[in-house]
Amino acid sequence: MFQVVGGSEHTLRAKLTLSQESHGNIMREAGPVSMTFAIPMYNASRLQVRYLQIEKKTKTHNPYRWVRYVTQANSYVARI
């Protein structure tokens, strides 16, 4: 998997080869291009968990006291 350093910018260049010869009056359209990504410890919505209340306390289960934020691609589409 390709990792991107924070604060950096990358460019994707692609070459499309059409299987059939197109006519000049046909509008050329490519897309959509879909991307899949995950950004650990980043929260795009800035929603924060301040506290949790555990209603059923058991002796066998000890909850962890940390929150992991992950931003994942869901329906991100870039049209060319």
TrEMBL record:
Any one Pfam family match given in the protein's UniProt record, by short name: Adap_comp_sub
Residue stretches making up the MHD domain: 1-79
Protein origin, superkingdom: Eukaryota
Gene3D superfamilies attached to this UniProt entry: Mu homology domain, subdomain B
PROSITE patterns: MHD
Name this protein carries in UniProt: MHD domain-containing protein
Organism: Nelumbo nucifera
